[in-house]
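ARCHIVE CARD
Drawer: 12
Card no.: 0347
Subject: one protein chain, sequence and derived structure
Cross-reference: see card 0346
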Amino acid sequence: MTARRLFLHFLPLFAAAWLLSGCAAPTEAQKKEADARMHMGVTYLRQNNLPMAMKELMRASELDPSNAEIDMMIGLVYRARGEGEKAEENLRRAIGKREDFADAHNNLGIVLADRRAWDEAIREFEIAAADVRYQTPECAVYNMAEAYRHKGNA
């Protein structure tokens, strides 16, 4: 059998192995490392070191792609960089992974308010404020009030 035929013969197996490796659930060690990298990313974000924040958060996302909190933090870095579209995309991804993620709804509302999409922003703030498990609903309520105020002045 020639090398080409051998390759074509095993191609479906290689493809299946490649697909499965990308779809495999992260191990506990990967989740732990992802969590540590996410916290480092948050620390860098607080220090306004956006390149390092993004580097740590992207690595965290590679290690644990199912973690909605990482997507939210990536969205916050994009917002800090002034990249609203990418911020919105990542915040929506976080909500897609965890629909009841009040922090992500509140942050999405902030990004939507940045582009003056008042009705959409208010809807996100309402979702966040209505979540009885949200630890800081007053933030969402304040943001919602500000959105109503700005909407009335628009």
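Annotation on reverse: Residues 13-21 have pLDDT under 50 and may be disordered. The chain has eight helices and no strands.
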